[in-house]
Amino acid sequence: MVDKMDKIVALAKRRGFIFPGSELYGGLANTYDYGPVGAELLRNIKNLWWETFIHRRTDIVGLDASLISHQKVWEASGHTTGFSDVLIDCKECKHRIRADHLIEDYLGEHEQKIDEFIELFTSVPHSADIDPERIKTGIANKKVEGLTLLEVETILNHLKIPCPNCGKFAWTTPRKFNLLFPVHLGIVMGDQALAYLRGETAQGMFVNFENVVNSTRVRLPFGIAQLGKSFRNEVTLGNSVFRTIEFEQGEIEYFFDPESESWEKLFDSWKESMWHFVVHSLGIREENIRWRVHTDDERSFYSKRTEDLEYNFPFGFKELWGLAYRTDYDLKQHIKHSGKELFIVDPKTNKKITPHVIEPAVGINRLFLMVLSDAYYEEGERVVLRIAPRIAPFKVAVFPLLANKEELVTKAKGIFETLRVQIPCMFDDRGNIGKRYLYQDEIGTPWCVTVDFDSLEDGTVTVRDRDTTEQVRLPIAELFSYFSKKLSQ
Ligand code: ATP
Question: Do 243 and 301 sit in the same domain of this protein?
Answer without folding.
Answer: yes
